[in-house]
Amino acid sequence: MSRGIAAALSAALAVAASPAGAQVRIEYVAHASFVVESPGGVRALVDPYNGTRWLGYSFPARLDADVVLVSHPHYDHDASYYAPAQAPVLRAPGAYAFSDLSVTGIAGRHAEPWGQEFGGTNTLWLIETGGLRIAHLGDTGPLSEASLRALGTVDVLMLPVDDQDHILKRAEILAIRSALRPAVTVPMHYRLAELTRLPDSLGTIDGWLAEQRNVVRLGSHATVLRERPAEPQVLLLSASPAVKPWPRELFEAFEHRSRARALAEKPESREAAIAERRRAAELSPTALFVFELARALADAGREAEAVGVLEPLLAGAGGDDWEMTARARDLLAGLYARRGDRERAAQQYRLVLRDEPRHELRARAEAFLGPR
After folding, report:
1. Of 34, 51, 78, 174, which is least surrounded by CB within 10 A?
2. How confident is the model over 192-226, as pLDDT tens digits?
3. Least confident span in 48-62, 71-85, 196-210, 316-330
């Protein structure tokens, strides 16, 4: 980093008083993902997102992290497969310590109506380091009194904001900020129009920002936090320069997927729909497209072909999508069971139970495996 950039980062924001010489670095990755780095160099990666679904941009390759914090198991918050394999992944409420960085997970609730498939859980993360208390709220709904008490005094607040009120409504954002009284509010979970036109269901934050006082547009993805500002600030960070718009092939894969969905509504177009799904999987052989191709084949009675698609995917699974990997295991287990191969079906269902929080998939696995 050049001396001029370092000076700009250090001077760009004044936050809370900290021990002499202590510095806390915050990096915005994109969407709702951040890295908080302690004065001692411990790096906590919060809510890494899947870079091949919904958002329209990538997740950085080889992003360094010592611990990963996940608020809830939606793919745009739970993509810890991008983190170093040795980094522990925390999802549950509790207290944790990593050298000069401590983490408290607080039980919360996901904004409705989302997340009901896994019980609507959402862990609020409180990171304490360098004399600062940094709260990341994930996809929270309105905070309960118990959650507000558990969070206590907050210096830096990261919360979802967008002009379509996808997660929190304006009044809910105001209520949370009024209760927690953060020195710095960092908005997240909005459409990054400078990178992509996607997703349609998220707004930008231009309208919300226009209503706020003391907005600091940093023009960088990172800052070093030092002193507390005289008045509360809204800090707007840029996405990491390592985040890139999707390549053309991925956009094309989603276009083939959309055509397949339209064709699948007509029985006479089933084969054409399968051909579209096959092309999508060829363009982007990720778990999403491969699973959907296998499911279409199975629905058409071509179960042997479906198994042949799923087995290679799952032989190397875990690298691009937890949810779709679990759905692929669930489908493959059912296909094995119909062929009478109960041992291999049980193996897949046990992996579903090990990894997957969604009630529907767990219920099928438990029904097959019986009492444990």
Report:
1. 174
2. 999 999 999 999 999 999 999 999 999 999 999 87
3. 316-330
Residue 364 gets which letter from DSSP? H
Between the two ends of the chain, the Cα-to-Cα distance in Å is: 54
pLDDT tops 90 at residue 15: no
Residue 130: name the closest of 105, 156, 150, 106 by CA.
156
pTM: 0.91
- Which two tokens mark 305? 């072909």
The two tokens of residue 16 are 């809370």
CA pair distance 203, 191, nearest whole angstrom: 5
- Three-state DSSP at 97 gives strand
- The answer to whether 118 touches 322, Cβ cutoff 8 Å, is no
User: In order of start, what are the domains of the chain with their CATH numbers?
Assistant: 3-236 (3.60.15.10), 248-369 (1.25.40.10)
Using an 8 Å Cβ cutoff, are 92 and 123 in contact?
yes
- Our separate counts of H helices and E strands in the chain read 11, 14
Among residues 277, 341, 285, 273, the alpha carbon closest in space to that of 312 is found at 285
